[in-house]
Design brief:
The protein has 318 residues and is of the alpha+beta class. Helix content is 29%, strand content 28%. Helix 2 crosses helix 3 and helix 6 packs antiparallel against helix 8. The longest helix has 22 residues. The mean pLDDT is 93. The structure holds biotin.
């Protein structure tokens, strides 16, 4: 972690003298350093004569584990990256051996489902990519993103957000607003050697975003609870939940978790429209099947839908 940011993360004033002494530069050189940090991480640092410097708002910065592991996964903590999923893919291509975990304080080109951006300001949220080797063929992938959704749901509940639920395939919503999302990317051939990058983005302490930058209603744990969350403990709890759910999924497949998933599905029984590109179908949500595909009742007939490019909306009259 940046030593200056480690000191400033409490949001309190720190004198130029104190900051200078901490990084071994003169008081006069500190403002230049802080301006460089502001520009690099898009931060806002206030300077007040006689009091010193402070961040516009406190941060809870991530601390690298001394062991370099989170649970049983080796972890790399980056200050800034284009996308943790993209970085994970590059490391795979360069021969890194899964499992491994990439976490970043900021993404400059975070990606969401269906070609969307994932807004990823410095030090506020969680940007997390877990890379696993797939040895069990398609069965190991079926329903995987929904199972990751369950692990994330439990972690967000543990943080104190009781009103969180799932929206097929793997959005997490509170009061109709998105709080977390999941993007799975595959590399290789599921019938042969294959890896999956499980990308997870959680709005933890995000407070404000310039207008129109996020094109859907959103919230954050901080907004729901009205208090800043310790991101390090969220990170380790997420690891524990993921290990538990991935093990269950590996042993029994999605079928064993299907009931739990449906019990947490916010749109169970609701009238929806499902878009695949320009094609739209309308129906009522029956639930999911043993592979995690969506079951819809369309004019009295059950039809099943799966695929990453599908987008589900509530019908106005639902
Ligand atoms: C969605 O559209 O709901 C999926 C969002 C996934 C965002 C996460 S943040 C960490 C990882 N790296 C990325 O570039 N995307 C995923």
């Amino acid at each position: 972690m940046q030593p200056l940011l480690r000191l400033l993360q409490d949001g309190q004033f720190h004198s130029g003298e104190e900051l200078g002494a901490a990084v071994g530069v003169s008081r006069a050189a500190i403002w230049k350093r802080l301006q460089a940090l502001e520009a690099e991480f898009d931060l806002s640092i206030h300077k007040v004569r006689g009091r010193g410097y402070r961040l516009e708002a406190p941060l809870s910065l991530l601390v690298s584990a001394a062991s370099g592991h989170l649970g049983s996964w080796p972890i790399t903590l980056l200050q800034q990256v284009d996308s943790t999923n993209a970085e994970a893919m590059r490391r795979l291509a360069a021969g890194a051996a899964p499992p491994f975990l990439i976490v970043a304080e900021q993404q400059t080109a975070g990606r969401g489902r269906r070609g969307r951006n994932w807004v990823s300001p410095f030090g506020e949220n969680l940007y997390y990519s877990l890379v696993l080797r797939i040895t069990g063929g398609m069965r190991q992938i079926e329903g995987l993103s929904l199972v990751v959704g369950l692990a994330l749901l439990q972690t967000i509940r543990e943080a104190g957000v009781s009103g969180v639920g799932l929206k097929w395939p793997n959005d997490l919503l509170v009061g109709g607003r998105k709080i977390a999302g999941i993007l799975l990317e595959l590399s290789g051939d599921p019938a042969d050697v294959c890896h999956v990058v499980i990308g997870i983005g959680v709005n933890i302490n995000m407070r404000v975003v310039a207008r129109d930058v996020i094109d859907q209603p959103w919230t954050s744990i901080r907004q729901v609870l009205g208090a800043q969350i310790d991101r390090n403990s969220f990170l380790s709890r997420l690891g524990a939940q993921l290990e538990r759910y991935l093990e269950l999924h590996g042993l029994h497949g999605f079928a064993a978790l299907r009931e739990e998933w449906e019990a947490n599905h916010l749109w169970q029984g609701r009238a929806v429209s499902l878009a695949a590109g320009v094609q739209v179908v309308e129906g009522r949500v029956l639930g999911v099947d043993d592979t995690g595909a969506l079951r819809l009742d369309i004019d009295g007939n059950e039809r099943v839908f799966s695929g990453g490019e599908l987008s589900l909306r509530l019908r106005d009259d639902s």
